[in-house]
Amino acid sequence: MTAVFDGYKVANDTFIYALAPNGCFERVFGKGIAALLRKISSSNSVNEACADLGLSYTKAMRMIKRTEQTLSIVLLDRHKGGSGREGSRLSDDAVRLLELFDELESRNRKAALENSIAFLEELERIRKSKANSRA
Fold this sequence. Notes:
59% of the residues lie in helices and 18% in strands. With 135 residues, the protein is of the alpha+beta class. The protein has one domain (2-134): Orthogonal Bundle (Arc Repressor Mutant, subunit A).
């Protein structure tokens, strides 16, 4: 399944690609960055999220910055340490992006299930017609 709209492409079920300056589509959002954002949301800490996911802080920040730049949205409201130590929270745009991504995954799972059922029903028809022709 592939859908293209306004310089973005959704392919391979739930990977979002963006048209790069070189004319190629590059992957900018998928399950990995979604998992990272969810961990940051639950911990309010990029460092803690990285530890939980086994990612280096540098790689995580590179993923976040690349996604922010490519999609032209801010993913994190960042707050440095200090007495308040608020850490990092997801921006409203990031929360909505995760909601949209979850909806996309859900719709794709539903479509895959419906297609699988249709396939198996047709396979059963073929098997029955073969069995009837042998009898």
